[in-house]
Amino acid sequence: MHRIELIGLEKKYREKTAVQCVDFCFESGVYGLLGENGAGKTTLLRMISGIAEPTKGEVRCDGIGIRRLGKEYRALLGYLPQEFGYYRDFTAVRFLRYMAALKALPKKRAEQKIEELLDIVGLAPYKKQKLKTYSGGMIRRLGIAQALLNDPEILILDEPTAGLDPKERVRFRNIISSLGKERTVLLSTHIVSDVDYIADQILMMKEGKIICSGSQEELAAAAGQIAWICIVPRETAEKLSEKYIVSNLKNRGSEVELRIVSDQKPAPDAAPAGPALEDIYLYLTGNVTESLCAGSAGSMRADTGADTGADTRGDMSGGEE
Ligand SMILES: Nc1ncnc2c1ncn2[C@@H]1O[C@H](COP(=O)(O)OP(=O)(O)OP(=O)(O)O)[C@@H](O)[C@H]1O
User: Fold this and answer.
1) What is the pTM (predicted TM-score) of this model?
2) 37 lines ligand 1 (CB under 6 A)
3) Which is nearest to 140 in space by CA: 117, 118, 163?
């Protein structure tokens, strides 16, 4: 197990400070880095991977600066960037052989590893198909496989589930969970349910800073009573939505069930609910995205009289990318 320390990490791009004053220590397990688009997740992961140079501060592995460690550190790392390049006419096997050669893996070991990884990510039956025939989910799984070629002890995945359908997402989560048993996995996303299921530790990022971190239980305990459920008439629901953060909304006949994020009881009949990770995120960032607001208002206005199951939970952006 390795200890990765971020010490006073900062990254500026001209006037823009993408990451500021980040101090953190990663050990083993799955760490989920959660933040909206532009929060600084990719920049942080690129600095941890040694691809981007910090403007200030340092990344250390087991007490030594990663610049000093150089190759030794890179040998520990597996990295899946947000978008990774591949040749569309390559088959999966050919692509992985090519990546293994770039990573200077001995040929025999590479062949064994490629077979093993194709199995792990469920691509063995399609290994001879050209990549241009692969779905987005298959390509992401191939991305994980290439990141694992050198048996990395530290695996860094930038938005690995972007663009995946729900079934692929579940499959991906399971792969990542099992990988986290033996190594350090850092995974960034803006989709709460991704980290909800698999991360042992959660880091929430906003405007370049880590605004909180801990296990889900620790975050819930620190947040206190911030989630409420109430069933109210439509007009009341509209008023409450203007005043409070609504993390979920369901039409129930002529009434509306709201899940409200607030540290104060929002309505006389509101019942306390245990805070979900998404509630905590919304509470700390004050961040109901436009699409979430629009979705809520739209669902309320659509007076179908039925439970539409208008579920705004799970994706902070209301979309996947
Ligand atoms: N090369 C660059 N030059 C200038 N600004 C940049 C550069 N890279 C990132 N930024 C800015 O830094 C901020 C953080 O970007 P970053 O990509 O790290 O965020 P993110 O949380 O990963 O977002 P996303 O999920 O959209 O990738 C953003 O405002 C972005 O526009």
Assistant:
1) 0.83
2) yes
3) 163
